[in-house]
Amino acid sequence: MATINENFLKLQAGYLFPEVSRRVRSFQAQNPDAKIISLGIGDVTQPLPPAIIEAMKKAVDDMGTAATFRGYGPEQGYDFLIDAIIENDYKSRGVDVEPDEVFISDGAKCDTGNIQEIFGLDNVVAITDPSYPVYVDSNVMAGRTGKGNKNGQYDKIVYMPCTAENNFIPELPKTPVDIIYLCFPNNPTGAVATKEILTKWVDFARSNKAVILFDAAYEAFITEPDIPHSIYEIEGAKEVAIEFRSFSKTAGFTGVRCAFTVVPKQLKGATSDGRVVEVNPLWNRRHSTKFNGASYISQAGAAAIYTTEGKKQTRQIIDIYRGNAKLICESLTKLGYKVYGGVNAPYIWIKTPDGLSSWDFFDRLLRKANVVGTPGAGFGPAGQGYFRLTAFARPEDVKEAMQRFASV
Ligand code: MLT
């Protein structure tokens, strides 16, 4: 009989969001009349902007004519999209990125999950607690961790707690680490890192020869002018950091699928016999072996985000979500909740009332208000006693959910 990858058996319970859906489905089955509002998974609700729809329709038409039909595209992505990314996301911020450092993909979830494959299994991984579950789970699956304990933490991972006491900004690790996952604006806490904070991390990575895996999927939600949108705005970051970006939340692409990862050519890693090698060709090799490129239609849509109209229209949508975040923060603060995030991020992180555990509050909110959120404990043990709400719902649903919160 074929044996299995037993690392999968170390994983605790199911993935967070399917577990939330399971509980919601079961509640709905028992309460068929309940009009449930979801502020749970961060899935967008506004339709795609017209400039993107137009570009995607044109791309579909291209596919219907022999002269413009496209088969397999370049695995790394089409130049028209890579060039637009470099011009708008990096050059405009004084950052030099070369075309062969950008890898277009079908999602930051896949990229943040897959990137660990190009690093050795003996690396010590540091992950914030709480964090997007993909960082921990993908390292467990790969066998880079020991067994999980009853708190849901795994041996060999260095956890960096982020709580109200440290403003949800992790302290530098006190023990040696090789790979560091950072996400700013943060999912789930909504915290952001200033230039000083990111500089501290880049300097730490440079002096410890560590790699930072920087998840910037929510950068479009930054409102304050001095907050870096890219880790490469920090001097020396290209020597130590890989950056992940996504069009999912920026432009409503959760159902379209398109994202990108920047792997700088300056970034190096070591072999077990002490040779120093570039990391970029390894990701290129991995990408072109296991991936055939995001669809032409998705990439054409993504490129339209960077046109004048596209920028204006996506900004309008982001403003709608920002309005939601503001309403959630203000309403819950008025109701006496301790509220974090929501200013430079689409996530609002609240302290559960009455000392309730995250899942107990989830159940109470669902039962009393028919509102769904995400239990903070699902993002790691330091998330216990916290609860995440997303601003990606429809404004009318957010308004109604906030009225219902009054009865919880
Ligand atoms: C979330 O709710 O944390 C995100 O939507 C999940 C994801 O982007 O995969």
Overview of this protein structure:
The chain is α/β, with parallel strands linked by helices and 408 residues long. The protein folds into two domains: 9-47 and 309-405, Aspartate Aminotransferase, domain 1 (Alpha-Beta Complex), CATH 3.90.1150.10; 53-307, Type I PLP-dependent aspartate aminotransferase-like (Major domain) (Aspartate Aminotransferase, domain 2, 3-Layer(aba) Sandwich). It has 13 helices and 15 strands. The mean pLDDT is 96. The structure holds D-malate (MLT). The site of D-malate (MLT) has 6 residues, from loops.
SSE order and pairing:
Elements: H1 7-10, H2 16-30, E1 37-38, H3 50-63, H4 79-90, E2 102-105, H5 108-114, E3 125-129, H6 133-142, E4 158-161, E5 179-183, H7 195-208, E6 211-215, E7 241-246, H8 248-251, E8 259-262, E9 268-270, E10 276-278, H9 280-290, H10 296-304, H11 308-334, E11 339-341, E12 347-351, H12 358-369, E13 371-372, E14 374-375, E15 386-390, H13 395-405
Parallel strand pairs: 1-13, 3-4, 3-5, 5-6, 6-7
Antiparallel strand pairs: 2-8, 7-8, 9-10, 11-12, 12-15, 14-15
The chain binds D-malate.
In short:
This protein is an alpha/beta fold. It is built from 13 helices and 15 strands.
Mean pLDDT, to the nearest integer, reads 96
SS strand fraction: 5-15%
Number of helices: 13
Distance between the termini: 53 Å
- What sequence of helices (H) and strands (E) makes up the elements? HHEHHEHEHEEHEEHEEEHHHEEHEEEH
Cα-atom radius of gyration: 21 Å
Helical residue percent band: 25-40%
Instruction: Report on the biggest sheet.
Output: 7 strands, mixed
Total domains, how many? 2
What would you call the shape?
Answer: globular
Oligomer: single chain
CATH level-four homologous superfamily name of the largest domain: Type I PLP-dependent aspartate aminotransferase-like (Major domain)
